[in-house]
Amino acid sequence: MIERETIKRGGRRVAAAMTEFFTAPASAKPLAVFRIGLATVLLAQAFSLAANVTDLFGREGLIQWDVTYDGTDRSAMAWAYPHLSWFDGLFAALGLSEATGVYVMFSLYVTSLVFLLVGFKTRAACIATFALQLILSNSSPATVYGVDSFARVSLFYALWMPLGAVYSIDAILQRGGAVNSSAARIGLRFLQLHMALMYLASGIGKGMGAQWWNGEAIWRAVTMPELAQYDMLWLANYPWLPIFLGWATVILEVIYIAAVCSRRTRLPIVLAVISMHVGIALFLGLVSFASLMIVLNVSAFLIPSEPTGLKQTAASFDPQSMVAVAA
Q1: Is 42 exposed, middle or buried (CB count within 10 Å of its CB: 0-12, 13-18, 19+)?
Q2: CB atoms < 10 A from the CB of 167, how many?
Q3: How far is Cα 132 from Cα 84, in angstroms, rounded to an integer?
């Protein structure tokens, strides 16, 4: 009987600790940094594509619409795959050519990103940005790589986050919501957990293949014509270096989830991962991808979430605090 009561008491403490960990009010500042960084990266990417809009997204572009979308497919999956071809009728009704219509859609995407950046009508801007990014990326597989997948996931999370509570026009107009809220805590926790699990899965996946242990992955990445930014053939004279970098990458990603849980190791591990992404930008030219990953790391783990004017409860990503409460 005593043991049963002890178990129940322990269960209640764990439940209370979990509730506090996920719902204790937090500052919306990390999420505001996430919003600003995400919009900045996607705007920079959009401007880099602006000179080739019809070539990339048009009906007769590098990859034609007939290839990227099957108009005869009426399955449920097809309806979940929005495409620019859906708007043919709207373009015609407005008296717009197909090319002009594509420019209009791209311009709306850029406009929604500007609204998201400054935090004006933040929720509506986020919905519009998510929908338009989905439509444009589905219509142009030639432009899609890792950054687009992470952008889509980030924008989906952003739909549910209080992104306009601080550092925004909405906040100035006092319609951005509370600076401290449980919604901010929940949003931040989802972002943190996604980052931690993503690096863990990536590290395990890399570790299951031999090419990250023998240096081949690093060698191939920095010497591939489509990625290489510099002549890196000199690495052949120092085979230990790509081997070291491959090992370091796998280990860094696998231990990330544990290291960010401790206040003592959080800053070093996040800075190490940021350095890795800076290297990706410099040596592989994947600037948008690297920049977005840096934004995610900084906003998730380096921006203080201490609620303004409130006593700190579970402001940092520290599962050890749950253990202490449950003890």
Answers
A1: buried
A2: 19
A3: 9
Give per-residue pLDDT as tens, 150-187: 999 999 999 999 999 999 999 999 887 889 999 999 99
Residue written as token pair 């952003």: 158
**CB-count exposure of residue 84 (10 Å: 0-12, 13-18, 19+):** buried
Give per-residue burial for 179-215: e unless 16+ CB within 10 Å, then b.
bbbebbbbbbbebbebbbebbbeebeebbeeeebeeb
Rounded Cα distance, 291 and 272, in Å: 14
Find which of 8-12, 267-271, 320-324 is predicted with most confidence, using mean pLDDT.
267-271
Q: pTM for this one? A: 0.86
**Confidence at residue 290, expressed as pLDDT on a 0 to 100 scale:** 95
Alpha-carbon span 313 to 19, nearest angstrom: 11
Which of the 8 DSSP states describes residue 302? I
**Strand, helix or coil at 181?**
strand
pLDDT digits (tens, 9 = 90+) for 263-280: 999 999 999 999 999 999
Q: Return the closest-CA partner of residue 207 out of 241, 255, 257.
A: 255
Distance between CA 312 and CA 263 in Å, rounded? Answer: 15
Helix (H), strand (E) at residue 26 = strand 26-27
Q: Where would I find the beta strands (DSSP E) of 128-196?
A: 180-181
